[in-house]
Design goal:
Blueprint (H helix, E strand, L loop, with lengths): L2 H11 L5 H11 L16 H15 L6 H14 L8 H11 L8
Helix pairs in contact: 1-2, 1-5, 2-5, 3-4, 4-5
Length: about 110
């Protein structure tokens, strides 16, 4: 998927999304986006959601909230995307970064 495709997917849910922040998230995800499986987030896989919390929210964004608060934010994004079969990692990460006011970390 090209960078523009990631951007188009994000903008389905966040119409005024920041292209620089999207590009930054694509860079952060790097090689993982080349694998279809790794480019998607499975909201039914508990270990996947723990990875999003630990590696992205805590490590990358530096959030120090409780696991319950972070899991709640992940669940809220999952709810917004519940009708989407394949949830793109870039879109999920963008929406989480936006939720926590951390898009400037990527722009």
């Amino acid at each position: 998927m090209a960078d523009t495709d990631w951007g188009q997917d994000v903008k389905k849910y966040v119409p005024d999304a920041d292209d620089n922040a999207i590009a930054g998230i694509v860079r952060h995800c790097g090689i993982a986006l080349q694998s279809r499986d790794a480019s998607l987030v499975s909201f039914t896989d508990k270990s996947e959601l723990e990875r999003v919390r630990e590696k992205f929210l805590k490590k990358k964004l530096g959030l120090g909230m409780t696991d319950e608060e972070l899991d709640g934010a992940i669940a809220a994004i999952g709810e917004k995307l519940k009708d989407v079969r394949n949830k793109n990692r870039v879109t999920v990460y963008y929406m989480l970064a936006d939720h926590f006011g951390k898009l400037s970390d990527f722009a």
